């Protein structure tokens, strides 16, 4: 099944709603708690990246009994140096966003860390797209 | 799942079928069907939120009566710290404890003393286990159940240490059994409880087998009896042994003040707790060591079975916390014994906190996925007003109920109106039609040559 949520850059009021919606569905589907948690973290970080850095974007999630695929596509400034952006602690988030407890430079590294497949593409001045896959280890098991 | 006991229950005659409780339930466990609220036993956490929000007083809690004292040869009262907060500033804990004895208990063991034990064991645990952060206190049974039902991924974050009540029950029974030379089964330990969630916890433990606590009597049930006996000063011997810090566990923030380790958060009120747990679930708050989370505003003094205003009760408790200071709760040798016991797993409650997947749509993941897909379709067709008139807490919940076969789309008054409108239009169209055997202008005249 497919879930799709629009995410608006700079909208901190609604930030986290897409990830929350995904969490609800995963709980209903009965995917094991740990896999569900990884998906929730990854989706949340991807959503927050759009809110913090981009103009707008779409977070879409495809859930199958084998895996969860999360796509985050945004229109925004793009990332000039991806290897640098992937380093833990590196962030371009402005001060007022850091004050909210975001922009610690862990977003992208965490997205990579918690997913089994991770691919990022970016065009400066156009936007960024991230694709992550989380495999479901124990199919149909108890949460 | 049938056969699950819950303290919180509905008084059918009083329920008017309004939507207040369904809107406030943190696990969406309530539906109104046939004009009455129905509580889903699997999802209910016994937090007591529905008891508090029901204006018709149609929600109540089952507790044990004092009659049950007769089932045991020897009985011990385990008063919650919150009980001390129910009485004015001139009342000594010793008077309250003496009143409980006078009411028919053979002995008392303060749960505040159990909290002193839990403080010690929790500190040990936090020091020894640094791999998971933040750790969440498991002292509030409604929060524990909330995590089991709604946040199963956070079970590893719970500190698997016995609650102050369980610590108190264990130690009280053991020492009395030794002292009197009678088997622990002959001793009945009764928690004097501020909340229904504890009642459920106790019943669950009893059902599983030998429990350190045998029953739970509500604070509101003993309040009158205790108050009546407070006029006279407490007779010797002095019974209060708990430290001020232990007593402080009865109010929000008390647990942290007692444990006093690292970064911490204090959160009370079930909806605020949900908000914090949502954050933990997505990996935030990893720089916090300890979360003290309580379902009731104000902590245990805010429990649904208490009598006094929670803010006033909290002030009373704080006064006692100051008076009895932070003096060491235990002698050095006693403390060493407790530590040794904790390290050997003597206060471990891990087996009591397995996940309860109460939100799963189907046992089969593929089927659950197709149901989730149907829900997305159905929800798009609903008005999105979340009015609750259908008896489900919001449109999405109705969509889930429809897909699960527990509701139909015309339970939604707006969908019903749409259908009536369509039907009315069809009727109108039909009324205009004439059987071909009749004339177009006037059916009654019939068709003429």
Tell me what the structure shows:
The complex is a heterodimer of chains A (143) and B (449). Chain A is 35% helix and 28% strand. Chain A has 143 residues and is an alpha+beta fold. A five-stranded antiparallel beta sheet of chain A has the order 1-2-3-5-4, with helices on one face. In chain A, helix 2 runs antiparallel to helix 5. Chain B starts with 7 loop residues before the first strand and ends in a 17-residue tail after the last helix. In chain B, 45% of the residues are buried. By secondary structure, chain B is an alpha/beta fold. The interface between A and B is medium-sized, with 31 and 28 residues.
How would you describe this structure in keywords?
heterodimer; A: 143 residues; alpha+beta; 5-stranded antiparallel sheet; 28% strand; globular; B: 449 residues; alpha/beta; 4-stranded parallel sheet; 17 helices
Nutshell version of this structure?
The complex is a heterodimer of chains A (143) and B (449). Chain A has 143 residues and is of the alpha+beta class. Chain A has 5 helices and 5 strands, in the order E-H-H-E-E-H-H-H-E-E.
